[in-house]
Amino acid sequence: MRKAVLAGVILGVLSGCGGSDGDGGNDQGDFRNPMPTKQSVTKVFSLLGENEYSNLYQDVDLPHEAGSDLALKNNRWFCNAFACAVDNNTPPMDGMIRRHDIDQNLIPVYVNNANGLPEFEVHKNIYDGIKLIEDAVGRKVFDLSDADGEIPVVQIEILHDDGSMVWSHEVDYSSLPTEGGFIFEFNYEQAGHTGLCGAAGKGPWDSSGSTIIAADSTVVNLGWQWIRIASEDATCTHSPELVAHELTHALGFRYHFAGFGGEDRPSDPRPVYGSHVFGHQAKEVLKQLFAHDIGSDVNNMNIPNY
Ligand SMILES: [Zn+2]
Asked: According to the lineage, what is the superkingdom (predicted)?
């Protein structure tokens, strides 16, 4: 077994609304969505491992020990800190490409049918959003297939019997065949919960950003991430681009940028909303992420001059 040196970071978007991702479904159009440049793509990558990690807590207890409540619930890689590592000497790395190792394992994807509805169907936008990501990367990224070649529908409880929320550390994944993956929760009730049209996080009600569990200070496919798309209403519309946007957060992009729901602000990387939720710059960044080796120096990447 390979030595598991693990580090994790909480990913997602820190914004003015409580550390959550306030993604709306409304496309503001291309006018604030410039073509990517070598400089802009390099800048986005530098944010993947930027100094914010110096503020992150590390959890050195991963994986949670066999027999523990988390292990029994197939949640051994649960990280409740901003960063997780089994070894204090391996903090999250700055300036380095860290990502899922899709050569080893495609990322398992599930769709949750929390209430066990008999008529449940996987929303077409999930397939279309996944296709947007894989078209951008130029290869398969996700493992969708159950026996029918479709995304497996699972039933994970997200509310306790008394109606209270099942928190990230309480979720029972023991019915799932993998130790991690992305779980879609579609048409969740926005009102009274998060107020977001889309969100990525480490649990069904978590909006603080996705957790990526890493080995050798780079990303591997461990741990659970939830991607939630709200019910459609006056403020939220469904689209494949919104699905692709949340998937991109879950793949490690913490901040918005021009062509990914935000715009460039030279001195402040925090998100400003306004550009296409999944525009051509987001596609280019994903393509370059997976075109480069894990551990690549973000400041010395071979990025074309557009
Ligand atoms: Zn976002």
From this structure: Bacteria
